[in-house]
Amino acid sequence: MSRLRSHPERHAVSRIGWLRAAVLGANDGIVSTASLIVGVAASGAGKANILVAGMAALVAGAMSMAAGEYVSVSSQADTENADLARERGELAVQPVLEHQELADIYVKRGLNEELARQVADELMAKDALAAHARDELGISEVVTARPIQAALTSAATFSTGALMPLLLVAVVPHDSLVAIEVAATLLFLALLGALGAWAGGARPMKSILRVTFWGALALAATAGIGRLFGTVV
After folding, report:
1. 84 lies in a domain?
2. Which residues span the domain enclosing 126?
3. I need a labelling partner for 84 at 20 to 30 A (CA). Which of 22, 61, 73, 203 fits?
4. What span, in angstroms and rounded, lies between the C-alpha atoms of 181 and 36?
């Protein structure tokens, strides 16, 4: 009888923490910077002013993304830590009830009561807090909050995304800047949508349509505002 060999498996959920921050950061970097550039260019501003505005958008946006992600994910981490502290206290005070609670979870998932109790025995003997964190609270190493990782990822990917439309300003003729910026930005967003879908193991078309639609809407809005106020001024 042949023995079954274990094989390593990689699941997309293991990348959910940094992938969310990376896609969000890059998307914001592309959309916000390109939209600002298109809006300023549509107002009739010169290249030097457009470059300054774009560079300011890159720096301010990267710092804002980093701060926002750190604060947001830190709040999630605080909530997780509070739940773990509460669970640790309950395990110390009422271990029998906590054992029954864990067994009941397994019964609801399809195990018979005897097997559920045996599984709860084994898991609580090894690491009771980890078992309750994973199966009762839904907290695991894979999806746990990491504020610094999220902040650095968002800042780096925002800057990378913002650089793409900003570099176009330096190489594209001023007269055709708006049209080329819009077309290139939509292409960048489509590539980002495809890359994010690939990294997450999803189908690309839905992601591409989603990011390009909202990007086109933002570009149209800022171009319209820039042209309106540029004409007024």
Report:
1. yes
2. 21-221
3. 22
4. 11
